[in-house]
């Protein structure tokens, strides 16, 4: 700015397109299991955008495990599904997930966890509060459980673990 002038928000690095305006996080620490094909909320977060031109970056990192399961996840925005794959015949539309084999030659999968996740950039289009969720289902619908933050076997021993998962929202200046 000119000497004695009033700095603009851009001069101060505020509300500059692409800048991070706010961050909210959900940190999941409990071990969970699911054998339902019905979608249910795993975690929710709310954010109130400072401008309707803002973008909201959704980031998910979920620790999963299973045996003969399809650990499936999708994002919702105020109850409506967002950030999923295109419709394609009878295939389920998800944001991210993993299928765990039941092959007897792959018994090691009972003891491993893997990180699955994705990122999705949404338009805020409002300055009202927005509630985002990660929904979870076991799309195999078997008696085997899909798991979060734990292995399939979940042995009561020091070599088996309990882990954490996270869901982060970032408001990005538009």
Model description:
This protein is mainly β and 174 residues long. The protein is 0% helix and 45% strand. It is built from no helices and eleven strands. The chain has strands spanning 20-28, 32-34, 40-47, 55-65, 69-77, 80-82, 96-100, 114-123, 130-138, 146-148, 165-172. The strands form two sheets. Strands 1, 2, 4, 8, 10 and 11 form a six-stranded antiparallel beta sheet that branches. Strand 5 (69-77) and strand 6 (80-82) form a beta hairpin. It is elongated. The model has no long low-confidence stretch (mean pLDDT 87).
What are the secondary-structure elements, in order, as H or E?
Answer: EEEEEEEEEEE
Rounded average pLDDT = 87
Which structural class do the helices and strands define? Answer: mainly beta
Strand count, sense and barrel status of the largest sheet are: 6 strands, antiparallel
CA-CA gap between termini: 23 Å
Figure out the total of helices: 0
Q: Which of globular, elongated, flat, extended, rod-shaped describes the shape? A: elongated
> What's the number of extended β-strand segments?
11
Features:
about 170 residues, mainly beta, 6-stranded antiparallel β-sheet, 5-stranded antiparallel β-sheet, 11 strands, elongated
Q: Can you lay out the helices and strands and say which pair or pack?
A:
Elements: E1 20-28, E2 32-34, E3 40-47, E4 55-65, E5 69-77, E6 80-82, E7 96-100, E8 114-123, E9 130-138, E10 146-148, E11 165-172
Antiparallel strand pairs: 1-11, 2-10, 3-9, 4-8, 4-10, 4-11, 5-6, 5-7, 5-9
